[in-house]
Amino acid sequence: MSIQNKPQMVEAVMFFGERGICKEMLFPEFEAVLDGVVNIPEFADQQMRAAYLLINPRLMVRAAVFFYLDFDEKGGADSGWNIPLRHLADRAGRGPDLGAGPIRLACRSQCPVSWHQMHLWDPSLAPGQNDLVILRDAAKRNNLGLLVEDDTPQVVAPERLQMAPEDKWYAPDAAKESADKLAEQLDQEHRLKTAQLIKQQRLRIASLGQQHEEELAKLRLAAEEQRKQLQAEIQRLHQGLRQQEELNANLKAQLEAQADSIQKTREEMTEQMRAMERHGRTESDILRSQFDQELKVRVAAAVAEYKEQLAIRDVELAYRSEQQAQLQKDVERLQQERDRFASEGGDHILERLAKLGVVFVVYHPGAGHLTIPLQDIARYQDNPMAYAATKCFVSETQYREWLAHYQQPTCDASLPSGERCAMPIDRVDTPSRFVSGESNCCTRHKASARLRTVS
């Protein structure tokens, strides 16, 4: 193999679909996609999950960065996307062993640069759907056509073999030393594998916790939306009921008005009948009979019509009352389910996880990774800073001052102009060694402080 074709560490990008990896490309091709030179129509108007990989000449993954990338309706990459993938890969923490030792892993729950965390995602570590295993197998398939390093062991020619003298065949001390070294190496490998397994389990716990929070938020949102819909339906039914009541009142008013009209007509007819009585008894009897008959027919027709309308309204009101009662039961049931979902979250889930042997680990500068017992979860939630300060054996005030100095190691002293000195100073890595007024001041302001103290 010539020098030009010697295998080297290769940068690659792989995109995840619903059934695993759906597209692979070398990093120069990925840069062409970011520059808008090449579009990917099958990714149009989607947010894709992708992984940036460093692959060694033996086709083994050495680093992985899991990130999101948005595409427009034409399949072009987001022009504002700007994540330093190689920088994140170089500064990432240790991850699982994929065949060539622990990889460097950067994802949402393990991001070396905090402001890029929102653009990363956590890989699934579930058995049968482990994203890291999928990447390892894809690199082994070598669909990218990478140059592979020949790792076949060198064969030594027989004539070059040399036999040691017979008196050198036995070396008990050397054998014992070799055995000790081998045992120490095996112990070290076992410790590394154990640490990697613990780290992988912590990553999976963080991923499961985030998935649970997202599912719980979705259930709460769905319950809230359904409650609003039911409230709107109840309000609409109440409005319909008020309209029916107003309509019934109007019908009753019309019936009373018609009854008054009939009464007036009857009075007029009675007056006419009395007038006719004066002209003749026979004619009066005929008119009376006709009047009574007509009056009965008109009253019976009016009463039947309004009774029918009232019966129809009563049936509608009964139906709406039944619907309202059913909707009220649905609202109460959904409220109970929402309360049950809320009660199952938080402490109940933490207790179940603790019984399964899960431990809760957080990271604070100065204190490192802290394992929080279940009984301390509430105290930690109330004041994480005070909890971390207790673990560093300092007060909360001193820990907060040290954290400000640790995040920005510059002089806090004020100049005569009133501005902050801001001179870069050495960072104090341990909270207990931090002294306010000394550790956070430059040499000049330390000396002036001592002079003021002496005077």
Distance between the termini: 77 Å
Uncertain residue ranges: none
Tell me the structural class.
Answer: alpha+beta
Largest beta-sheet details: 6 strands, mixed
The backbone outline, from C-alpha atoms, is elongated
Number of helices: 10
- For the biggest β-sheet, the strand order reads 2-1-3-4-6-5
Radius of gyration (CA) equals 43 Å
In percent, how helical is the residue content?
Answer: 40-55%
Q: List the secondary-structure elements in sequence, H or E.
A: EEHEEHEEEEHHHHEEHHHH
Q: Total strand count, please? A: 10
Strand fraction equals 5-15%
Query: How many domains in all?
Result: 3
Mean pLDDT: 83
Secondary structure layout plus pairing:
Layout: E1 10-17, E2 20-26, H1 27-34, E3 47-55, E4 61-70, H2 85-91, E5 93-97, E6 102-106, E7 125-126, E8 129-130, H3 131-141, H4 172-277, H5 281-344, H6 347-355, E9 360-364, E10 368-372, H7 377-382, H8 384-391, H9 396-407, H10 443-454
Helix pairs in contact: 4-5, 8-9
Description:
By secondary structure, this protein is α+β, with helices and mostly antiparallel strands. It has 3 domains: about 10-150, no CATH class; about 240-335; about 360-455, no CATH class. It is built from 10 helices and 10 strands. The chain has helices at about 25-35, 85-90, 130-140, 170-275, 280-345, 345-355, 375-380, 385-390, 395-405, 445-455, and strands at about 10-15, 20-25, 45-55, 60-70, 95, 100-105, 125, 130, 360-365, 370. Strands 2-1-3-4-6-5 form a 6-stranded mixed β-sheet, with helices on both faces. Strands 7-8 form a two-stranded antiparallel sheet. Helix 4 runs antiparallel to helix 5 (about 280-345) and helix 8 (about 385-390) crosses helix 9. The longest helix is centred in the middle third of the chain and has 106 residues, at about 170-275. It comes from Pseudomonas indica. Keywords: Coiled coil. This is Chromosome partitioning protein ParA.
